[in-house]
Amino acid sequence: MQRGLLVLAMLALIVPAHAAGGNLFAQLQTVVTSYLAERQQPERITGVALHVEIRNRPAIDVFAGTDGRGQPIGPATLFQIGSNTKHFTAALVLKLESEGRLDIRQTVGHWLPQYPAWKNVTIRSLLSMTSPIPNYSETPDFVATLAKDPQHEFSYPDLVAYVYDRGLPVPSGWFYSNTNNILAAMIIEKAARMSYGEALRTMLIAPLGLRNTFYADGPYPPSVLNRLPAGIYDNEECALYQPQPCTETVWAPLVGKDVSRMNLSWAGPAGGIISDMDDLAAWIRALFALRVIPQKQLREMTSLVSTGTGRPIAQTTSGDPSAFGLDLARRYDAKLGSFWFYQGTTLGFRAIFGYWPQYGLLITTATNSQPAQGEDKLGQIVVGGAFAAVRKAGLLSRK
Fold first, then answer.
1. In the CATH hierarchy, which fold is given to the domain comprising 17-392?
2. Section 321-326 average pLDDT
């Protein structure tokens, strides 16, 4: 969930030479096996999971590697899905709106008057990342606290306090800030009259039967943690708000360590969900099939702003290829077309979904590290591996 948590510039299309032969299951298995072999050292990963759904065909799950503790990655393996948590948070807001309990045109001042400096910031701007609110997870004080004590318990107000009235640069246009989702969760709690975690479980997770999707406001229980692989933090990039020039990252105490057991209260409603690739795919399918929110709210969620300008746009194009809805990303590529996606990153995990409604194609993948700056190539599995294999198999057909 750190470093913006979202790879908006998707990787170039790479079609493996081996993708032309064999059945699709075998091709996809080769995709993850080859990726692990090529990227294990540079990304400090031990395993990869991939889930592919194509309209009217059985889903395919393939795995490669181990959990870093001697057990193979498989159907029981869970991953921290990082900022994929955000579209759950946005959906909760929109579900409450559909029930008349809030309106995304309302402001932070209406719901959270304790933050008068942000009194005119709308809920919509929180979820579209167009608010003028800095990112708490890039502040040196926050990082120092977490790096010193990975089990530190943060409340939502604690996280907001790292940026409120601290004299940090005020962002403009489109700016990715995890603080937006913490504020959105605080609004959810007031409107729903229950905790964010309870709202998430009772309004989304349980009704959709997501049996392998979990959220905790504090430490996760062993029954969940024991299903996670080891997750290595290997990123020595300095935090955004560190004084410049920066010679050593404040994250240094965690570099090279397994951070899979840390308390995820630091990520909370911005990135704290643990799930598997089947459930993540089921969630995306349900969201776009109107089984989560009504059509009006889905239109709001999929209304776009350019990540280049922060201004509304009707669609992604070759001239303006990267856009953001309400906690959903959209991308245009000449070879791939337009598609929805999100990459979530925590300190030790990465998870991506890619969804092409026009083809009925949904891909989810995850692995177990945050690698060194510039070494994250997980998007290749989605666009250069799975998508290419499905297209080579002749299975991309429009509705």
1. Beta-lactamase (3.40.710)
2. 98
